[in-house]
Amino acid sequence: MTTRTAPESSPAVHLLDLHSLVVAVRRRRRLWGTLALLGLLAGGALAVLRPPAPAATATVLVAHQADQPNDTGTLIRTDVELLHTTRIAGQALRALNSPQAPQDFMRDYRGTGLTNNLLKIDVTGASDAQAVDRAEALADAFVADHVRRMREAADAEAKALREQRDRMRDELAQVNAQIGDSSADADPSASAGIESLFARRAELNSRIADFDQRAAEARTGTPKVVAGTQIVDDPRAVRHSLPRTAATDAVIGLVLGLVLGLAVAAVGTVVADRPVLRREIAANLGASVVAEVRRPHRSAAPWRRRRARAARERLTATLARTVRGTAEPVSLLELGCARGASAIALDLARVLAADGPVVVVDALPGARRADRRRKPGDPAVVGPGDAAAVPRGTRRIGVGSLAPGTAWTGLPDLGTRTVLVVRAGHGSAAWLHTVARQLADLLVPVLGVVLIDPDPRDRTDGTLWDGQHMALRGRTERPARQNGTGRAPAERPSWAVRVPDSDQEVR
Asked: How far is C-alpha 409 from the chain's CA centre?
């Protein structure tokens, strides 16, 4: 009977990892910081190079005949739209004796409803005096037009009421004539008709009096509207403060630049798909992150520099123990950190020089970076062509590159076992997969990954435990040919533990 173990379900893949996105955007702070700074400078420069045009403002109190306490602002919005008409613009231009077209003049001013009865007029001009004259002409034209419209409306209403009253009077005259004719006949049978005529005459007299009163009220309300519509704030020039305007525009530019930079960084991160977390890099390379090296800034505090040096020393000691445990040559293959890989190789060679002769084989593209960092008494640095002339018994430490265009077949010559030195966020996930596959095809085991410039807030685990999915990567010994049992050794390296890079992690 054969017992089969059900395969473990693969973990769900998130469409968008917010943790990775936040870390990647924070690592690209130079991009969005630069865009924010450019926006700040552009806003300030715009305020200086293009100062606001001279402007004037005036406030008009507008009285409406149909004012209601619960008005939602419909009347004042109507007044604002009426202000932006060619009729009022033409009246203002005629008062100014200006040949400008009303359509062009309408672009130089705007109205704003402050309350249900307050209208603010803002006008620009070539100078402060011209802006003030324009504002005064516009305010006078609007007031005159509003008063004229209110008077015309009142006159039209009163005229309609008087016409209706006159028709009632004509009908009343006919009723009076009928009553006089009926009284002359003195016919007893016509008494009911006479009573109806008297009732009709009373009704007509009442309606005529009502129309007279309404016509008088219609004319009476107009003076209130006329007197209530007036300029309450005389036109005056608006003073612009250049420092305040520059500061406002600079803040607006800063915000816009920051938002644009964050959007570009986020979109670029999603599109580029460059792993930055320890767990992502370890999963894509199929090897554990065994150490981290943070690059201290030149202006970093002394204690931070000491911590960086201590982390480098721990990394060198860890790699030295690994190299001493094998007789095969070990290489350091970099991806995005040629300078860091050459420095680590020199540090490792200095430590191993106490055990015997050591040579650094520098196969990095371009000039020999390791050779430029040598100090008096350091181990020798040779190129790939001179590696064959190295005496037997001399330990070799190869330094190579895994950048696109790498000659994969030459990597085993640098070392049959390798340590990957990878800068976080440099290579895409597809390229990390390519590196892992090529090294597996070349039967070059990966002892571990040294992460350069990791995110300081990354709390993910970069350790991969041995399993069948590890294939040839992550082993300490070269893969054994299949024996009778058909299984490869499954022991796990005792040193595959991430090296702490700060005193807090040590504790």
From this structure: 46
Among candidate residues 502, 331, 333, 342, the one with its CA nearest the CA of residue 432: 333
In terms of DSSP bridges, do strands 55-61 and 118-124 run parallel, antiparallel, or are they unpaired?
A: antiparallel
Residue closest to 358 by CA, chosen among 317, 329, 397: 397
- pLDDT at residue 228 greater than cutoff 50: yes
- The reported pLDDT for the residue numbered 309 is 80
Q: What is the DSSP string of 349-373?
A: HHHHTTTS-EEEEE--SSS-HHHHT
What letter would DSSP give residue 388?
G
- Report the alpha-carbon distance of residue 498 to residue 481 in Å, rounded: 29
- What pLDDT shows up at residue 111? 92
Residues 6+ apart with CB under 8 A from 462: 278, 279, 281, 282, 288, 289, 449, 451, 498
Secondary structure (3-state) at 237: strand
Residue 398, phi then psi, degrees to nearest 5: -90, 145
- Cα distances from 151 to residues 10, 54, 202, in angstroms, run 83, 36, 33
How far is the C-alpha of 31 from the C-alpha of 303, rounded, in Å?
Answer: 28
Residue 329 · residue 416 · CB < 8 Å: yes
The mean of the pLDDT values for the chain is: 79
SS3 481: coil
Instruction: Work out whether the CA dihedral 488, 491, 494, 498 comes out positive or negative.
Output: positive
Distant-in-sequence, close-in-space partners of 283: CB < 8 Å, separation ≥ 6: 464
* Of 386 and 35, more confident: 35
Identify the band that residue 171 occupies on the pLDDT scale cut at 50, 70 and 90: confident
Q: For residue 332, what is the enclosing H or E element?
A: strand 330-335
Please give the model's pTM, rounded to 2 decimal places. Answer: 0.58
The residue written with tokens 């008087």 in the block is 162
